[in-house]
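Before a computer can learn anything about folding, someone has to put a protein's shape into writing. The outcome of that step, for a single protein, is printed below:
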Amino acid sequence: MYYPFFLAYILTGLIIGVTVFAWALKTGQFADQQRARFLAMEEIAPRTAPSAKAGRDLYCVVYLGLAAVAASFALVGYALFFR
């Protein structure tokens, strides 16, 4: 009875997950795998002021998170009130 709603919920999560993964690949989040194993041993350098690109990336991630929450509420609300 509720299978279409659960399938839509799962597909929405998969689409958002694939979108975030594609964004991470595009922006080079996985580019330096050799350095990643030593990050825990390095001292953390003081951070510089964030660039405009970092601000856009943050807004993109926040927007995707809010879209996921909104889709969750919409699907659950539709399943509860209109079925």
Notes: The two ends are 9 Å apart (CA to CA). Residues 3-39+50-81 form one domain. The chain has one domain: 3-39+50-81. The mean pLDDT is 81.
